[in-house]
Specification:
356 residues; alpha+beta; Cytochrome Bc1 Complex, Chain D, domain 2; 3-stranded antiparallel beta sheet; 11 strands
């Protein structure tokens, strides 16, 4: 929870009814108050609106092209017309710009009494815009931009923007040169680099049936079972986020797919209009995810697909921290979608993730 739900209400015309199911006893005052605040918001007739219009889903890196006179607004009313917006900044996509995210953090987390001054906000955004994060080296593999590989943060900083769907610099392709071993390597380093290269091929090419998973409304190819690979969702060149669809429900927070999370509250959500296409009308979830932003039942459990770079340094994983290691990520997807990875394939995928 980590305070994510504080000061966040659904739009007045929501189609969700959220109730306590379990887990609030003994979880601490902050989480208990967070739940009660959600409940107050849902019961209010005129609570604050969600942070984006539910009939308009911008894509990261695009400038808004709405009719003149209309406005894209964030939760606190900032006009974002003409600015580059992103649906990938926060797990529930409640802020669309770096400016809005900074203001949200200042008011919600730091408890500022008012908005950040313009010059302070500009300084924060300028700093964030110059940060390129990725793994630089491996204790076993050495520098990740050696011998033809294109890993490391400098490569990100030097790279130009690419069209969505570009396969040239898809996640993992930066290690294609390691498919052929360089001269003079130790046996251990040679084996590690070969494993990274194989992991990249598995990530891009090994397909499996993706079932019972929803993306943001209006996109195609994912509301029904589709056979594809990991790169289907992690399609953003260089970083592996999913800016086309933004939020995806892979089941990490919602029964029956979520791993046991007894330390977190469990919410029961009842769909007041159409039932959820997979979960039905009554849903048990530890985190409603994007539904807290959109107010739509179909968005329960959808979480923003984040950047994959620098993964080795930021365990635990998933929005709720239920995967404690890189191997646990692979194991979850293997169970969730019945992929059938071999032990070697899992080892190769972990090697790839450790090099990003």
């Amino acid at each position: 929870m980590h305070g994510r739900y504080h000061d966040l209400c659904l739009p007045p015309r929501h189609d969700l009814d959220l109730r306590q199911q379990a887990g609030l006893n003994g979880v601490g005052d902050e989480i208990r108050e967070a739940f009660l605040e959600i409940k107050r918001c849902l019961d209010a007739d005129d609570g604050p609106r969600a942070i984006l219009d539910t009939d308009y889903q911008p894509t990261a890196g695009r400038v808004s092209e709405r009719d003149h006179g209309s406005q894209d607004r964030t939760r606190r009313g900032e006009v974002t017309m003409g600015k580059r917006v992103s649906g990938s900044l926060l797990a529930d996509a409640r802020s669309l710009t770096l400016e809005a995210q900074a203001q949200d953090a200042a008011i919600s987390h730091l408890q500022f009494q008012g908005a950040l001054p313009t010059d302070t906000l500009s300084t924060i955004v300028e700093f964030e815009s110059r940060v390129y994060a990725s793994q630089q080296s491996s204790a076993i593999g050495g520098l990740l931009d050696q011998d033809g590989a294109m890993g490391g943060p400098q490569q990100l900083a030097d790279s130009s923007s690419e069209p969505l769907g570009s396969r040239e610099h898809q996640v993992g392709n930066q290690f294609a040169a390691w498919e052929e071993a360089a001269d003079g390597l130790s046996e251990q380093r040679r084996a590690y680099r070969a494993s990274v290269a194989r992991g990249a091929r598995i990530f891009q090419d090994k397909t499996f049936l993706i079932t019972d998973s929803l993306r943001v409304k209006g996109t195609t190819g994912f509301n029904k079972p589709v056979r594809s690979s990991c790169a289907f969702c992690h399609a953003m060149p260089q970083v592996g986020s999913d800016v086309v669809h933004g939020q995806v429900d892979i089941g990490t927070t919602t029964v029956p797919f979520a791993d046991p999370q007894p330390h977190l509250p469990l919410f029961r959500i009842r769909c007041l209009k159409d039932p959820h296409p997979f979960y039905g009308r009554t849903i048990l979830t530890h985190d409603p995810g994007y539904a807290l932003t959109s107010g739509r039942c179909e968005d329960i459990g959808k979480i923003t697909v984040q950047s994959m770079r620098g993964l080795a340094a930021r365990a635990p994983y998933f929005s709720n921290g239920t995967a404690q290691s890189l191997r646990a990520i692979i194991d979850y997807f293997d169970r969730r979608y019945q992929i059938g990875y071999t032990a070697q394939e899992k080892q190769d995928l972990v090697a790839l993730l450790s090099a990003l």
